[in-house]
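Chapter review: from sequence to fold.
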Amino acid sequence: MVAIGFNEASPIKSFRVYNRTFRIALFEQSPFLEKQIKAQAWLAGKDFEYHIVKLSKSQHIETVFVPRVGNTQLVNAATNDEETFHAYKKEEGKPVKAGLLNPKKELDEIVMETMVFDHYKLPADIIAVSPDHFEREVFEGMTQTIQKYQPILVVPNLLPTIFDVHEMLTERKYRAYSYEAEHNRVIPFESNTKAKQLLYIHKFTFETDVPLDMD
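The token string follows.
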């Protein structure tokens, strides 16, 4: 099981609830999450590894900007997007709320290494990604892994990037499904689905045109 870009250590607890033995590999780009990950690593046991690195389609050095309020860094809002960066800069130095004692918004600059997933040569049966709006870049860096292992891919259903990801994975013989928790079943993906997450499963592994009960 591989989890990428969740901006927290929660996948450790979530995955161990369902399976006590399979291996977990966690990838996070923010070095400020490492303390949180280490604090929960004991839950994962021996079959666990984590990497503080940003995954992309190429290996390079990248600058990321993280908003901060007082001593708290808002890692979920980290960005390397120029337009977003300038929007953050306009808010820098302003108080969060009116009043002299309220902390001010600041912007921290972090230089980090960017790697491709294939570099790690990890076997994978399930890969869950949540690097907001950078999903395609992550998948472009794991072409060898996808070709070799044909893992199930769990992808956030975010507009507009899901259409770009959907096109790329469809070309690689993947098909999208959504999961209905109340009926415990998977159904073929439709563009108007309200599902927050989509399951991409390789056609050689599984394919259905009708809702399939998981009982």
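Two observations follow directly from the output. The helical segments are 10-18, 34-44, 82-91, 135-140, 143-149, 161-171. The chain is about 25% helix and 30% strand.
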